[in-house]
Design brief:
With about 270 residues, this protein is α/β, with parallel strands linked by helices. The protein is about 40% helix and about 15% strand. The protein has one domain: Alpha/Beta hydrolase fold, catalytic domain (Rossmann fold), CATH 3.40.50.1820. The chain contains 11 helices and 8 strands.
């Protein structure tokens, strides 16, 4: 990856593939590696794929205090500017989907199309993980056992159909070993997520929007997708049956097809 000074911070990014630019925004506790090679391989056929690490993650600028989703969106806008990209297709998942919302609302000219995956808008009618899931996450983070934290994260992020697939879990562990995210960074991201609320502003969003969500999502229930689709004018909603939070791990080819079709890239 390449570290790039974007003004306020340095962001570590990777650029690969060919075609119109596609900016990928990862979620809480994730890195650019967490998009997974199967999904990235599919995207590279059609896009100039730009995947980066948020501040506090990897080789990007360390955190110097609390963060906000809007602040992370300004980082993304600055990255596009530093790369001399006037506008890009944008895909954000989970926390990254919240960042993508803020980017599209603040600088719509930078966003050709918007894909929001397994995310939420905050505000009335939205919902985070259940109390039980939240407790499991907090217990795993405070356990002092990295093995327990990773296994818990895996079990919560994927559907029952994938959870016992040891070959895929091994890829998940390898990514975590290559680029770990510090617990204080994860906690700061959780606080930023808790404060996120674009619900009152989404009806003013004028960017072509695709919303993708799995029915087995334990972190951000699928009801959030229906809510956002009702708020964003003309939004297209794609619900993946039997799929968990990491839908692009469980359905990489289908997920790439959806992004390609939304961006109107020829098959």
């Amino acid at each position: 990856m390449t570290a790039l000074d974007v003004g306020e911070v340095v962001l570590d990014y990777e650029r690969s593939g060919a075609g119109p630019p596609l900016l990928l925004m990862m979620g809480m506790s994730g890195t650019a590696l967490h998009w997974g090679e199967p999904f990235l391989h599919e995207l590279r056929r059609d896009f100039d794929v730009i995947a980066y690490d948020h501040r506090g993650v990897g080789a990007s600028t360390p955190l110097a205090g609390p963060i906000t989703i809007a602040q992370l969106a300004r980082d993304a806008a600055a990255l596009l500017d530093a790369l001399h990209i006037d506008s890009a297709h944008v895909m954000g998942i989970s926390m990254g989907g919240m960042v993508a919302q803020e980017l599209a609302l603040a600088v719509p000219a930078q966003v050709r199309t918007l894909t929001l995956g397994c995310t939420y808008c905050g505000g009335p009618g939205s919902s985070l993980a259940s109390a039980e899931v939240g407790q499991r996450i907090m217990e795993s983070l405070s356990s002092g056992s990295r093995e327990q934290a990773l296994r818990t994260a895996w079990e919560i992020n994927v559907s029952p159909a994938l959870v016992d697939d040891e070959s895929v879990y091994a890829r998940f562990l390898a990514i975590a070993a290559e680029r770990a995210v510090a617990i204080p960074v994860i906690m700061a991201q959780m606080q930023a997520i808790a404060a996120h609320d674009t619900s009152a502003r989404l009806p003013g969003l004028r960017v072509p929007t695709l919303i993708v969500h799995g029915t087995e999502d334990q972190l951000l229930p699928v009801a959030n997708a229906h809510l956002m689709a009702s708020l964003i004018p003309g939004a297209r909603l794609e619900i993946l049956e039997g799929v968990g939070h990491l839908f692009f791990w469980e359905r990489p080819q289908r997920s790439a097809e959806l992004v390609r079709a939304h961006a109107a890239v020829p098959a």
